[in-house]
Amino acid sequence: MALAAAGVIGISRARWRREGEAQIVTHEEAIAQAEARANERFAARASEIDALTSQVDTLRAELAQRKSVADALEGALAAEHARCEDAQQRAARIAEEATRLRLMSATFERWHEQMTSLMAQNHDMHQKNQELSSIVNHVLIVSLNASIEAARAGAAGRGFSIVAGEVRALATRSQELSKSYRDSLNRNDLITAATFQDIQAGGKMIAASLASVESLSNQLKTQLKETRTGEPA
User: Which of 28, 153, 202, 216 is the 20 to 30 A CA-CA neighbour of 172?
Assistant: First the structure.
């Protein structure tokens, strides 16, 4: 009996050992499978992390490039803004110069009209001086005739001869004054003609300058319009 019981106990222990070893093997296999799955998941996550890291680097490069482009555009816009301001200031100065030239042109036109009127007055004064000279010559002839007639009358015409002499002296002085007046008018004509020519030349120069300034102003306005709209005017 004791031997039978010992045998049964030995058989049970062997069976338990085998079952225990089988369970250990099963647990080890489960652990190995779990480790394999975990390693696969870690590898997949590592691959995803690498992909995300690459995308982040790509995004950083794109951001750096875009920032560089934005800085360049900002600099270009600042330069364009400065150019527009300079063009506006130039346009303002040109407009002021055009206004000044218009005022000068109006002044020259007024001088031109005044010189034309002065030349017309000089011409009228020449005609009147010619009439005066003709009258003085006629008085001289009359006084000479009167002196001749007084001489013929003898003592009776002495008083008339004295009057005729005074008339002839006055006519001679009038003739000299008329000649001096004619010479003054001739000098005045020369001065007036030279001044008139200078005024005409100055007016033409101002008109040409005004046309050039207005053309430049229109060009600047066109450039400013194109700059603002981005399209040809």
Answer: 153
Identity of residue 117: S
Given a contact cutoff of 8 angstroms between Cβ atoms, the answer to whether 146 and 167 are in contact is yes
- For residue 38 the two structure tokens come to 């975990």
- Beta carbons within 10 angstroms of residue 177's beta carbon: 14
Q: What sign results for the dihedral spanned by CA atoms 103, 106, 110, 115?
A: positive
157's enclosing H/E stretch is none
The answer for residues whose C-beta is within 8 angstroms of residue 172's C-beta and 6 or more apart is 140
DSSP 154: G
Give 138's contacts (C-beta < 8 A, 6+ positions apart).
Answer: none
- CB-CB contact of 167 with 143 (8 Å): yes
Q: What is the pLDDT of residues 88-120, one digit of tens each?
A: 777 777 778 778 878 887 887 888 788 888 888
Model-level pTM? 0.48
Host H or E run for residue 155: none
Secondary structure element (H or E) that encloses residue 53, with its range: helix 2-153
**Fold (topology level) of 8-90+101-226:** Helix Hairpins (1.10.287)
The position carrying tokens 């010559």 is 137
Report helix, strand or coil for 1. Answer: coil
> With bands split at pLDDT 50, 70 and 90, how would you rate the model's confidence at 14?
low
